[in-house]
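re the bet — no i am not wrong, look at it urself. input seq straight from the record:
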Amino acid sequence: MDKIIIGGGRRLRGEVRVSGAKNAALPVMAAALLGDGPTRIRNIPRVSDIGTMADILAALGARVDFPSAHEVVIDPRGLSTPTAPYELVRKMRASVCVLGPLLGAIGEARIPLPGGCAIGPRPVDLHIRGMRRLGASLRLSHGMIVARGGRMRGGEVYLGGRFGSSVLATANVMMAAARARGMTRIEGAACEPEIMDLAEALGRMGARIRGAGSHTIVVEGVRRLRGADHAVIPDRIEAGTCMIAAAVTGGEVMILGARPDHLRAVIEALEEAGAAVAVRRGGVAVRGGGRRRVVDVATHPYPGFPTDLQAQMTALMTVSPGISVITEKVFPDRFLHVPELNRMGARIAIEGSSAIVRGVRALSGAPVMASDLRASAALVLAGLVARGETVIDRVYHLDRGYEDIEGKLRALGADIERTAGRKA
């Protein structure tokens, strides 16, 4: 099993370009099932989740081709089965976003309850509620969502949940509603940039959608959608991870492709933490090296501070003098990185849905184990600043969402390598 080995203590300097957003690419790939011809999606990141989605679509009967490293063409005309294979769906939470396109395209779907990172319960109740409001019948049977829709109809759908709006449920309802009869009004919709990107892609296919980016989205159903050409947005989570990497190492990094309008909460938190952030043409520049300051952070749905950057921000706070409180309001159990950071000398205590972080003068390299995608990134950041060598095991989690993270960091001056077979 691959490991990542990091020699800490080097300041990152230079330029890095972020890849396309995998959380935008995955629903757009699923949406391609709704067209009557091929859809070309550009700026696709080379991460394992993209390969998993491609395999799922191929198993459903679509033709999936990668004409280049960052481009995929999906032809749905061979769509022949409503059943997604469990062995693929179990790998990735985002697999559930084929539910809406299958109902919209062929009127039925059989989706095993999805897997993904172990970051706490993420029920599918909002997906089921949304599809039922569009006239579909759904039931859970033997660990599978069994759905029948026929020609669905528009309706009023509310998608507010206990911890805020659901991004994937919003995407699913949008995609199903695009082919439903009449008008659908989605209240409590997620506002994330990935939802706006999906709405743009569906619009290129002929869908009629307005309000994406707000909590109210209106979809006017159409009988036919066509294939389209679409480029996904840059990955704001990768961009934020690189920004925090610059801050934690005291380096100076230009993040090319970063969208400052997608990163307002992250920019504000880093500036409060002592980093200098400059918005420049083509991206965002971050300079660390000043006096670090502690900052209290609470995650919220967009435009709040992203839950997908909570672990990375926690890593920064471990070496910031003072006491900070990191509160997780999206996935309250998302603290699997804390024991591993404490193995490296951090002083973090969990109290309910908050992490109390007491900054230390330095972390020390240690063998650690990745537990999920973003926790893996936090361990990488900690390794970059720790004294000595850090060995991170189970790095396949990283490969789900970061394209060649060790290559990009090495180009910035990090002492980092990937190896197979070395014992931690």
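see?? The first strand starts at residue 2 and ends at 7. told u. also The chain has two domains: 2-19+234-420, 22-231. so pay up
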